[in-house]
Amino acid sequence: MARMAGSRRPEQRLVIEGGVRLKGTVRVSGAKNAILPMLAATVLTSGECVFTGVPRLRDVAVMETILRRLGAAVRWETGPDGTGVLRVSARNLSSHRVSEDLMGEMRSSIFLMGPLLGRLGRARVSTPGGCAIGPRPIDQHLRGLAALGATIRQQGAHIEAEAASLEGTEIHLDIPSVGATENLIMAAVLARGTTVIRNAAREPEIVDLQNFLNRLGARVRGAGRDTIRIDGVRRLGGAEHAIIPDRIEAGTFMVAAAITGGEVILENVIPEHLEAVIAKLREAGVGITEDREAMVLRVRWSSRPRATDFKTLPYPGFPTDMQPQVMALAAVADGTSVITESVFEQRFGHVPELIRMGARIKTEGRIAVVEGVERLTGAALDAPDLRAGAALVLAGLAARGRTVLRGVNHLERGYERFEERLRSLGARVYRLAWPPSVGSVAGGRPSEGGQAEETSRAAWVAG
Ligand code: UD1
After folding, report:
1. Ligand 1 in reach of 366 Cβ (< 6 A)
2. Phi, psi dihedral angles at 146 (to 5 degrees)
3. Is ligand 1 within 6 A of the CB of residue 137?
4. pLDDT at residue 345 above 50?
5. What are the tens digits of pLDDT across the range 115-141?
6. How many beta carbons lie within 10 A of that of residue 137, not counting itself?
7. What is the CATH topology of the domain spanning 11-29+245-462?
8. Which CATH architecture has domain 32-242?
């Protein structure tokens, strides 16, 4: 992520006092990676779209801003269970341009191209560029849109796409890109005739997108398999849709339980979506019981995890978005783990930080060899990106002593009220505005000495 909205706000840090076993129940939020493409898809219809179980995340807020600037009406409500409800009406679209500042905020804005082309016949976005996890090309998106009949011009940082009408076609993706699969499904929904996408990504969020689009009146089949077929329709209506639970957030809380030797019950989980993660954690010795009907997982662990090797792959393989968190677990496991990152080129930003905590990790290219140590030690750390940041929080929870983490804004992109929910499980995690002033610990535990004491102690560590 090139720029973050948070950089304009006073800097925030997380202070984590390690060594507490997490215990309790946590409800998993709606999936970030499901709601983002669906919000983009609202541009396809003049009908009202109502989403329930929407996580209040920064990436969702960025997408909301993009939709408003395109002319859509967006309204937040609170559902009976306290989760977010988002109503979007793109009846009147006044623009086909996604501004550069918002593209810079969130790379996923690229998948507005498909819906804007489908509805308005033109779209203008800017190149998303690379981010903390390496170069992120969009060639598969552009090639697919061109195959559907769009003329694409790239001028400097801008990409302009136009199509008098999109025509159904056969598209074979070179790699099963999640974003390209979603973008092309959305572009094809209002195209003439049938589109077939082969070597499509199979992530559960794509199935959720298909279900939502079909509720609007689209005809999409095959999501979850590697061939997706879309029969174009003339127009779409409105619909209500409940977002699937966030499997990465669930996985992160599972590791939080395991790494602290705790016992956590996760509600609102679809265990099938987590099969690769569950299998790996079980291999490490972590006790996991599933109640698929009740959508509940119980994670329980009280001794040192065993080392396990794993390789990230497109779904249903082990998710790259869980690699940093499970590496934090491997850092304290008994034995040596070999971890291969095969999805992204540079996704080891958490490694130097874990090493600062005493981890023994060597990397070469996309391979990390992690020799587990008995205990990590708290340190002053930098979160380089969202999931690496989550991994450092987990490492901090397990470490001896205090960890102070910078770059908290990354966490807000993908975890709803993260530290508050960790605190509800007993974790000692506090937020600190930086530079600290008396009373600046946000949501901190009222300690004997009050917030001022908490602040100065944290400042002492960070200093
Ligand atoms: C999505 C997820 C992200 C997750 C990733 C992989 C969302 C909003 N984000 O990102 O959290 O880490 O899937 O599971 O859903 N690639 C190309 N050309 C392209 C597109 C992608 O070479 O046109 C490459 C990428 O550089 C990367 C790989 O394909 O190496 C996978 O990327 P992709 O599946 O597209 O990830 P995103 O959709 O960006």
Report:
1. no
2. -65, -40
3. yes
4. yes
5. 999 999 999 998 765 566 666 789 999
6. 13
7. UDP-n-acetylglucosamine1-carboxyvinyl-transferase; Chain (3.65.10)
8. Alpha-beta prism (3.65)
